Amino acid sequence: MESKNMLIALVVLTVFVNFVNYIDEDESKTIHKIDVLKKRLADEKTLFKNKTLQGAINSPTLFFDSKQDNNRLLGAFQNEINALALKSGFKITNITWGEPTTNEALKLTTIPLKLNATSTPHYFAKFLEAIQSMDKIVKVDTLTMSKSRNEMNYQLYLYGYKRVHSD
After folding, report:
1. Is residue 136 within 8 Å of 64, Cβ to Cβ?
2. Is 24 helix (H, G, I), strand (E, B) or coil?
3. Three-state SS at 94
4. What pairing do the DSSP bridges indicate for beta strands 101-103 and 108-119?
5. Residue 52: DSSP 8-state
6. Prediction pTM value
7. Residue 75: which CATH number?
8. Which of 78, 104, 134, 155 is the most buried (most CB within 10 A)?
9. Residue 62, Cβ density class (10 Å: 0-12 exposed, 13-18 middle, ≥19 buried)
């Protein structure tokens, strides 16, 4: 029994270390790095404008649409996450919306979703890989896991971001 619990703990630790973004990462530093990369990409587009075909460089939108209502964005975010979960085999049992919060200093609104799910670690890893491949910035945070008979129970928070729209 003890070796079984040890094996489960090692699998959970491996999944956590390899696939979950670290919680203590400072969001403002990440956003700043993204802004620097976007500016560099824009500068390179301008520099090589005559040498590249139009549309050859496709820069994905890293934030949700700033002009959209927060409730619509939460719905769209939930739909994207449901589609990724369905594709990866991750079984979401419940999704609840959190209250969007705005950080005026960063000019950024956080769009939170809380997920409850049951699945195997393999499908959870596939789900996290799908989230990482999204064209939006999504932070996985506050992961809680417990074991049921044949599967693991997961509770986690996902955060999407949108720029504050100035009218």
Report:
1. yes
2. coil
3. strand
4. antiparallel
5. S
6. 0.61
7. 3.30.70.60
8. 78
9. middle
